[in-house]
Amino acid sequence: MIQTIVKKEIMANLVSYKFFIVILLSSVLIFTSLFVMTRDYKSRLADYQLIRPEPGQPIAVLPPNPLSIFAKGLDDAMTRSFEINQIGVDVRAGQKSGNAIFAFFPAPDFVYVVKIVLSLVAFLLGFDLVSREKETGVLRLILSNSVSRGAILAGKWLGNFLSLAVPFLLVTLFGFLVMNLDPEIRFGSAGTARFFIIVLVSLLYIALFLSLGIFISALTRKSAASLIVLLLIWTVAAFVLPNLGTLVARQIVETPSVQALSEKRSQIWTREILLLQVESRAAGGRAVGIRTGGNLAQAHFDAINRDQDRLEEDYRRKFDRLVRLSKAINRLSPTASFVYAATELAGTGIDEEGRHKAEVLRFKDSVLSELKRSGKSQLGFAYRYRTLGQVLARGTLFDLTELVVLAVLFFALGFVAFVRYDVR
């Protein structure tokens, strides 16, 4: 009986103009996203080829991550050029996005299309699965046969999920296959595995919203009421909660702004240079200016480096507290959990970016120690992205578990509501 209901739902979707419109729209958006983000990636890759340091240069810079095509995340921040000098780290622009429109609108990556468009499409498929058939009398006719309500609900869910998942997979896999034919894009076996996991997480996210749609449909008597309620839930989940968590966290955890941090670094620099000039005059003019290699100048360079390290450490400690609190609040929304999981799997998440900055600081300490010891350094920066196991252990497994639990919970609540649903 479940198989019969699945076929019924699929056939009903295939002859529905609403289904063809939303599937066509979703396919166009996914193809457009992959095209735009591929161009963006290749532009940033060309920039990297220009700024890539020679072996032994004290510069830390990463090539753009090919998985940023699907989940842009913080890849722009990770691919900036970090130049090591005697007083610390000088952050350059790195490989900026070649598309100026990204300054006004979020990057239309694959994750963005799934979290906004596909979640809404899942709602549009599920909002009237129960209430509409109650209004038309079809539900009463079905229940007049020897079929359980559980089988009806399971068949409806599976039929509509397949109706959405199959076109989504075909479009996504075709786009991925086309990208693999481009010699400038190299995902490798690890990148390919992560891509398929991101796709599976996307399907889980879509299943969650479809289950929620059926649940709300089983609670209401009218399809119009279901649609209004679901649009309200979608707005809160996709837009309000993910931004509210960050705003609340900023009120609780005081973190200095980037401008204030830059101003403090300038104050440290000015203070030490003035002290150097005063002390050099007292020492008979030795070690005057910032170009000298004298011990007096080196002492002040060390002081600048040390104070800026303390400043950076204090900032990172406060910022990490802000991120932890913000993520805890944002995870009230499944949209936030999906974004966190997808970006961390792609290597463009906030945890990966924090680890990258820590590696840059360790590289800086190694370079300065080598310069102080031998007067030159041949060290090169090398960064290895976290393994899949490390990514899962650092919170992504929690995000995936939340998506699974919510999908099952909403379906279970929908089943309870449907069992008690009055079809008259």
Write the layout of secondary structure elements.
Elements: H1 2-14, H2 17-51, E1 59-60, H3 75-78, E2 82-85, E3 88-91, H4 110-126, H5 131-136, H6 138-143, H7 149-180, H8 188-219, H9 223-252, H10 258-282, H11 295-330, H12 334-346, H13 350-374, H14 388-419
Antiparallel strand pairs: 1-2, 2-3
Helix pairs in contact: 1-7, 2-4, 2-7, 4-7, 4-8, 4-9, 7-8, 8-9, 8-12, 8-14, 9-11, 10-11, 12-14
Any overview of this molecule?
The protein has 424 residues and is mainly α. It has one domain (2-252, 332-419). It has helices at 2-14, 17-51, 75-78, 110-126, 131-136, 138-143, 149-180, 188-219, 223-252, 258-282, 295-330, 334-346, 350-374, 388-419; strands spanning 59-60, 82-85, 88-91. It has a three-stranded antiparallel sheet with strand order 1-2-3.
Give a nutshell description of this structure.
The protein is an all-alpha fold.
Q: Care to count the β-strands?
A: 3
Order of helical and strand elements: HHEHEEHHHHHHHHHHH
Major β-sheet, in short? 3 strands, antiparallel
Number of domains: 1
Strand proportion, as a percent range, falls in under 5%
- Radius of gyration (CA) equals 27 Å
Morphology: elongated
Name the strands of the widest sheet in spatial order.
Answer: 1-2-3
- The helix content, as a percent range, equals over 70%
- Report how far the terminal alpha carbons are from each other: 23 Å
Number of helices: 14
Task: Average the pLDDT over all residues and give the rounded result.
Answer: 86
Would you tell me the structural class of the helices and strands? mainly alpha
Which residues sit in consecutive blocks of at least 5 with pLDDT less than 50?
A: 287-293
